[in-house]
Design brief:
It comes from [Candida] railenensis. This is RecQ mediated genome instability protein 1 OB-fold domain-containing protein. InterPro entries: RMI1_N_C_sf, RMI1_OB. The chain has 188 residues and is of the alpha+beta class. The chain has 3 helices and 10 strands. Helix 1 packs antiparallel against helix 3. The longest helix is centred in the C-terminal third of the chain and has 15 residues.
Length: 188
Amino acid sequence: MSFSPENYLQTSQSYTQSAMTFTVMGIIDIANSKLSQIDKWKDYEDPHKASVDRLNKGRNHIIRELKDDNDDNGTAIIPTGNTLYKLTLKDSEDNYCYGYEYMDKLPFLRKTQKPAGDSGSSPLPIPLGSRIRIEKGTLIMNGVLMLTRVQCSYLGLSDHDKELYQKLNSDIAKKNIQYLTGELKSQK
């Protein structure tokens, strides 16, 4: 089944009529500044060149999580930053649309998913080229899929998508730095 977002642009609210599978073509954190994201990508690309709170280059890293020692079992993690993701999705008919996290956080975007044999730790929570499933009844607002944990699940990478995975994820830091820098320049 294909999804054509243009069919829903004039409708403020609708629902999907069937379950659909999408390929994740892009992931953007819309809750954090573009400058902050550029720093993350620069740190990923070369940890010694990233700026860290105006300190000199080296082993200084931004603290993003704190362990709560007062927790009974000592396992609670308190995130210091909020994230909210916008996904660029492609269906089986090559129709593109956006999907936003809506009402709650998607669990698969909160823990890093790595394909077998991949030892890198990208700032992206899932690799580009991964697949997700959207269930029947998913809210559509102005052509955008509103993703909830109940109606969206992570399927991982398909063996058929290895070439796409390699294409999307090669030089990913450079691509994202260029994209975010371009976005900043266009806002001036």
